[in-house]
Design brief:
- This protein has 177 residues and is of the alpha/beta class.
- The chain has a single domain, classed as Arginase, Chain A, CATH 3.40.800.10.
- The chain is built from 5 helices and 5 strands, in the order E-H-H-E-H-E-H-E-H-E.
- It starts with a strand and ends in an 8-residue tail after the last strand.
- 40% of the residues are buried.
């Protein structure tokens, strides 16, 4: 199998330093070699561009931090993941915070009819913008993928994921809304 590695060094969706370091750390610790040892051909597509000089966190939307940056990163990721599927390569996305799931999940949903998602997380990531307690986009990708978003996050989603096709495993904490 041919595998495309796509890095997403972002923390824009969680507003916390650290997750953006994951792609470099995984590569530095032999991710490509580990996959190749399993008999796969690996194409490392590098990292999507993550904007550094952003406007004030809530300048684009009063309830979502870094909205434009999250959409930009998600759109770039969508293009790389979708292209991987078209080339019959398996995309492995390494990153960053959970907001990256907006781009990768949207590409998978666009490519595969009736996509099912298995969501391993302590949180459901189904916050809708008006009720989000933090304004962090990393808590919103599942809502956007299902078509429940009320901001421009949904512009990344080409085909909605049927809520009946999402299975949460390990979820222990959902916001009241």
């Amino acid at each position: 199998m041919e595998i495309n590695i796509i890095g997403v060094p972002t923390s824009l969706g969680c507003d916390r330093n650290g997750p953006q370091l994951a792609p470099k750390m995984l590569r530095d610790h032999g991710l490509v070699n580990i996959i190749e040892l399993q008999g796969h051909k690996v194409n490392d597509l590098g990292d999507v561009h993550v904007p550094k000089n952003l406007p004030e966190k809530f300048s684009e939307h009063p309830k979502v931090k870094n909205l434009g940056g999250v959409i930009d990163v998600s759109s770039q990721l969508y293009d790389l993941v979708y292209r991987s599927y078209q080339e019959r390569h398996f995309p492995i996305v390494i990153g960053g915070d959970h907001s990256l799931t907006l781009g990768s999940g949207s590409a998978a949903s666009q490519y595969y009819d009736n996509l099912g998602l298995i969501w391993f997380d302590a949180h459901g990531d189904i916050n809708m913008e008006p009720a989000s307690p933090s304004g962090n986009a990393h808590g919103m990708p599942c809502a956007a993928l299902m078509g429940l978003s009320v901001t421009d996050l949904e512009q990344v989603v080409r085909r909605k994921v049927n809520p009946k096709n999402i299975f949460w495993i390990g979820t222990r904490d959902l916001d009241v809304a």
